[in-house]
Amino acid sequence: MAALKYAGLDDTDSEDELPPGWEERTTKDGWVYYANHDEMKTQWEHPKTGKKRRCAGDLPYGWEQETDDKGQVFYVDHINKRTTYFDPRQAFTVEDVQHKPKRYDANTPALEILQGRDLSDRVVVITGANSGIGFETARSFALHGAHVVLACRNKTRANEAVGLIQKEWHKSRVEAMNLDLASLSSVKEFAEAFKAKNLALHILVCNAAVCTQPWKLTEDGLESTFQICHLGHFYLVQCLQDVLRRSAPARVVVVSSESHRFTDLVDTCGKVDLALLSPAKKDYWSMLAYNRAKLCNILFSNELHRRLSPNGVSCNAVHPGNMMYTSIHRSWWLMTLLFNLVRPFTKSMSRSHFRHINYPQTSAALSPLHIFEGSGDSACSQGRRKMRALQPNGSADGLSCSVWAFSRSCRPAARQALSLGPRC
């Protein structure tokens, strides 16, 4: 108020009343501007409130807008046969509110991101969706109308998760299907069963993962962390790529991790080494195996996007958040203890992962999903920097293509899968 008094703007009782020497006028298209006769200037903002205003609606019955010889707008009241420079609509002006796009951060719940979105025409498949990040993602999509398939190894727990979502909203379209990423034959069976439903596939979320578990081989003869976190998803996408193309615009989302930065994939000759990705028991360290699998996720996402984006299928890698409490650490007591100690300071499940994903308010048909922060989250951008650092020639695509070719050669079943574009 002191500033207003000093400027001579506090002589009026109403906040919207103009100070002495000011006049309110309007343009032809109804925008209000203010003329200061003392200083011979005009401005759009109200001299006291700083707000912009415009006239709403049409002129009253019997009124007409004209322009005088000086180009100034005046108004003719044909009923009362009078003219005035005052727009009769100015008594009902409305504030010009600038609606800025809402910004989201690490504290934004997933349901708030999707608020107001109608996903009833979308089909979503989420791996590892019976608990943790996957469950919260499935719940968020289902509560906004999407048809969600929970692709899980444990069918009993998956059915329980389906029940929880349907209990929250009885009209939700959620179902569970069996998928064991530690078995490539199970991956193939899941893909065939899904295709038999004759559904589209707009969003495929590669979420399932294991961490800090003891060394063991899968039935396909590969180290389990590598196969579950990366190779199983790689094969799954190849088996479903024809459905994704038919459903375009579609998207594949690969859940990676910031921990990918603490490892590499190449040997001293600069080639992708199976001994690093699927090591023998004597060379195995659970966290290092997890880190390498997460780096594979980003390289896979990068190459998949390059190959399928011309067909309307995009791919992004996301980082769900640091030190977030989930059950992924259940295989190692030390990691479980650490997560329990920091749990009071970590994010809840509802504030993880799909804070990065949102349907735009404009045409969902043209762009079904939008990933905040450009084409991917921090894990994706960090991954690109990591790829440049690993490649002597600075080619990120080179390492991505090498991991792609290597993944296809890991198992005969993978080699027999349909190819996604030309080989490197």
TrEMBL record:
Q: Where is this region: Disordered?
A: 1-24
Outline the extent of the WW domain. 16-49, 57-90
Q: Where in the cell is it found?
A: Cytoplasm; Golgi apparatus; Lysosome; Mitochondrion
Membrane-traversing stretches: none
Keyword Phosphoprotein applies: yes
Question: What family does the database annotate?
Answer: Belongs to the short-chain dehydrogenases/reductases (SDR) family.
Query: Which CDD domains does this UniProt record tie to the protein?
Result: WW
One GO MF term on file is: oxidoreductase activity
Give the source species.
Answer: Anguilla anguilla (European freshwater eel)
According to its UniProt entry, the protein's GO biological process terms are: apoptotic process; cellular response to transforming growth factor beta stimulus; regulation of signal transduction; Wnt signaling pathway
Which GO cellular component does the record give, naming just one?
A: nucleus
Q: What's the protein name? A: WW domain-containing oxidoreductase
What are the alphabetically sorted keywords of the record?
Answer: Apoptosis, Cytoplasm, Golgi apparatus, Lysosome, Mitochondrion, NADP, Oxidoreductase, Phosphoprotein, Repeat, Wnt signaling pathway
